[in-house]
Design brief:
InterPro entries: ATPase_NBD. The chain has a single domain, classed as ATPase, nucleotide binding domain (Nucleotidyltransferase, domain 5, 2-Layer Sandwich). Helices cover 32% and strands 24% of the residues. The protein contains seven helices and eleven strands. Strands 1, 2, 3, 4, 7 and 8 form a six-stranded mixed sheet that branches. Strand 1 and strand 2 form a beta hairpin.
Length: 264
């Protein structure tokens, strides 16, 4: 009974600037599974847009409108995660085309909501959907329904203040860790490195240097590490770097600027 209580389904959530992914593994299985079906779309994808929508007229969220469910009838909030790190926000605002930013709801805070509460609302809906999905898959694969333990990833150079705010939002959304406390938090490059160290097909050895580049939608994260012992995941962080405006949406921003000028 005691052992059963300690066994949990590990759920990893990469809450990215533009998209979010959820992976999970059951203790009775060696397969890492990804959620690839989402409300609001018939297309399979391992990513869901990191967006939440509120009613135009009221502060209260009228419907569970998030991810692919968002329509033109909602006020959309996007990229809100970056508001937890003010210096990052200021750089993006200074660099970006204002019209493009406004057109996709970047940094929009409907009703004056604080960023932590917006992230909480998104994570709450993500968690409820994910847990329902995972329980259904467990039943389909004859796996027992166990409690969930969450792992969250954050940008490599986030401050302790920003990480604390993300933990606060996740905790308020029902995310719990191994012992029922705060979820475990890893930097995005570290999470990728951990996966590499667990893969026997990747020829990493003690003494190797590893550079992990996470080219996301909104940001670019780079982590540099030295491996001490692969088998136990022992490594040393050499350096971390985050470019808050170096993600793939830079292409969208530049295209918007060119098209706006040409169509004037």
């Amino acid at each position: 009974m005691t052992m059963e209580r300690t066994r949990k389904i590990a759920v990893s959530v990469d809450c990215g600037t533009t998209h979010t992914s959820v992976a999970w593994i059951h203790p009775d299985s060696t397969n890492v599974r990804f959620i690839d079906t989402w409300p609001g779309t018939q297309t399979r994808s391992t990513r869901v847009p990191t967006r939440i929508a509120y009613s135009f007229k009221k502060r209260v969220l009228q419907n569970a409108a998030w991810g692919y469910m968002i329509t033109e009838d909602h006020v959309t909030s996007s990229w809100v995660k970056l508001l937890l790190e003010p210096e990052v926000t200021e750089k993006i605002i200074a660099d970006d085309n204002e019209q493009w930013k406004d057109s996709v709801g970047i940094f929009h805070r409907p009703g004056g909501r604080d960023p932590t509460s917006i992230i909480r609302d998104f994570l709450d809906r993500l968690r409820k959907y994910s847990e329902t999905h995972i329980k259904r898959k467990c039943n389909d694969n004859n796996l027992g329904i166990l409690p969930f333990a969450y792992i969250l990833t954050v940008p490599a150079t986030w401050s302790e203040v920003a990480i604390s705010s993300m933990k606060k939002a996740a905790r308020a959304a029902g995310f719990r860790g191994i012992a029922g406390d705060d979820p475990l938090v890893l930097s995005e490059p570290e999470a990728a490195l951990t996966t590499m160290l667990c893969d026997q097909l990747i020829p990493i050895q003690a003494g190797d240097g590893v550079v992990v580049c996470d080219c996301g939608g909104g940001t670019l994260d780079i982590g540099t590490y030295v491996i001490h012992q692969k088998e136990i995941g022992d490594y040393r962080t050499v350096s971390n770097y985050t470019d808050p405006s170096g993600g793939s949406t830079m292409i969208d921003r530049e295209f918007y600027a060119v098209a706006s000028d040409d169509l004037k």
